[in-house]
Amino acid sequence: MRRVTRSALACLIAWFPAVATAAPVPDTLAQRLVACTSCHGNPTAAAPLDERRYFPRIAGKPAGYLYHQLLNFRDGRRQYPLMTWMVDHLSDDYLREIAAYFSTQHIAAPVLDRASLPPAELARGRRLVTEGDPALKVPACIACHGQRLTGALPAIPGLTGLPRDYINAQFGAWRNGSRRAHAPDCMATIATRLSLADVSAISAWLASEPQPADPNPAQAPARPLPLACGSAVAQNGATQP
Length: 241
What we know:
mainly alpha, Cytochrome Bc1 Complex, Chain D, domain 2, 11 helices, globular, disordered C terminus
């Protein structure tokens, strides 16, 4: 075993007082949620674009939506091992606290260039987002997520500011059943009615749409919703069956 040199020993002696006098880590919710913001971004230092290709921006999403997604990860309706591991032992009340915290945060979403798809495909994406396709029984995205695509209280998420790869991955998860919501699962129904080309066109359009100046969700969804959604809220305030 090598002897510790005098210089190394001096460094160790100098290091211990610094550790002893280091400021304690604050026990705040913001500090505890650094594990979340390292992937999803935080209000002061959003992650670079290349690190967020598969991670959604959760800041400013309705608290009801975020809460139910945390429940879905914890209870097995959504499949992502890291998220399940993080929330597996958390109580409902703590998940509500986390959701409420992120619902009040705001991170400006970057405006991406339009994907290099043929003009006809991009036009198809715009039509599906803004008009839907009656022949496929697919409603417009704006019919539920709002005219400005910023979502609606209490539980419909906004769609602007999401990476294209993430949007594609979620459609795939709905199609293969690895992402589920309370029945009737309206997004799973819509995903199975769309072709892969339609999904590509939608994601290309959504990912390159800028957020409006006011990114807050609407106070209530449009009525009536075009499809019954178990994760949405009915007019009387009760969860739809």
